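Notebook, p. 212. Picked up where the previous page left off. The plan for this session was modest: take the two constructs that came back from the sequencing core last week, fold each one, and keep the raw output in the notebook itself so nobody has to go hunting through shared drives later. Recording the first one now, exactly as returned: residue sequence, then the structure token string.
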Amino acid sequence: MLIDDTLRDNVDPVFEVNTNFPTGKCAVLLSQKDRCLVPVFGAAQHLSDEFVQSKFELFGGATLFFSEVYYFYAKPDLVHKVYEHCSSKGVKTCLTLSA
């Protein structure tokens, strides 16, 4: 469903599909106007270095690279390499800290 929706919106998604691990989950704790997110990373912790590195040229040709912060917890060195590569190619980067 996520892939179909992004394609419909003219976004070229890059997903490594791995059915050996469940998708991530996130509990949201609310207190008055405050919230706290409690993630379980699931498949994100198993994102393979080989898959990401095979997409480096694709990342370098992008206009924008967007990532959620949870990949930094699961694979900080790998995500850092991607952001460095994008920066060296002049690709704008965006990181959401609370999505």
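Okay, moving on. Second construct, recorded in the same format:
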Amino acid sequence: MDDDFLEALADIAYLAGRAHYHSGNSRDDVENFIAWAREFERSGYDRDDYLSEVHKFTEAKLKG
């Protein structure tokens, strides 16, 4: 697996946990985090501003 993808996945899961996100089904949450990380990696984010970009992306996903 690509290290950038794994980093995005870890950051998304961490940020979701920090926000106390839980849909009620942990397997669905894991599948969502993987899909979100793939989407984030394809988004063409600004690599020089990775942390800000992954935070904004994850916050938007958590809001629904």
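Notes on construct two before I forget. The radius of gyration is 11 Å.
Flagging for discussion at group meeting.
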